Amino acid sequence: MKHIYALASAIGAIIYVILVKLAVGPEFCAAAGCIAVIALRFCSAHFRWNMPRTGKIAARMNKSEEDREKTRKNKHGLSSAAMRINDQDKT
Hints:
Elements: H1 4-21, H2 26-47, H3 54-73, H4 80-90
Helix pairs in contact: 1-2
């Protein structure tokens, strides 16, 4: 449930504000916002929802690009995993 609580709270607040602007009773607005937050939190725990982690995703993408570049530059036609095995055998 990493960081879902903040998103759920923001969505609950948005629901509250929208309902207040529509001139719905304040008790109903508060109840609807709370129910939305609780429902989102329970769903995120049950379905194991997480917010995206851009730092790790970007790092993974850069690493896979580096691996592809190493494979292209390999003059022996070996994959980067095979190159590591060959390097270990030489030592």
